[in-house]
């Protein structure tokens, strides 16, 4: 079926109508809640892996610091140090189970939102839907670990190239900025996989691509803008006291979830316009 020619104003109107009908704001809040619940079990899991990987807890913080607001980083760093002080073998098992369960609940909320965007029912058996959510969670955790390892190996590769070809130390500074680019690419891959697998509908790469790009751009811009606001204008510690860092973290998760849902709505709308 050929693509229907639709004007920009009509697309914008249909998008906002979908936005309201599919309760994007409510679903984003639901996803943010489960993301917050799964964060600290994920940190427990990652800290438990540190002795077996060529990384430190500083590397974990550096990856998060690329996007997270300053106040939330202080909260995460404080809890990470407490976790390391009480680290033992049992934490690894707890971290795996707690992370898989709470994070997969978040993925279930994403699936629910995407199915609503595509106007399809979730007719997959419970065990199959839950397994898919857990598999996606494991994939996202694996990608995060890769994001931790790449800068470590990247630094070694950069040192090798600089010493082998007698390149100045300025090259190493340039090489270190690649870590941020790698993080962006990894996030894009996660978004693309999410848009292709989560909905109860066969989605091609070309169909998932626009939403993944919009979600990535929106996530990066929202994260940087919110971080700038928190660091320069919004003093949440004065307003909320000791829970200020949690409030900041929750808002950041909400903005991230919101952008993911917007990308899903964009894909569904474009698919509707194309007659897919």
Automatic annotation (TrEMBL):
Keyword set includes Transcription: no
Coarse class of the protein's main subcellular location: membrane
Tagged with keyword Hydrolase: no
UniProt keyword terms in alphabetical order: Cell membrane, Membrane, Transmembrane, Transmembrane helix
Subcellular location field: Cell membrane
A Pfam family reported for this protein in Swiss-Prot or TrEMBL: Virul_fac_BrkB
TM segment ranges: 24-47, 91-111, 132-154, 174-197, 209-230, 236-255
Protein name: YihY family inner membrane protein
Native organism: Bacillus carboniphilus
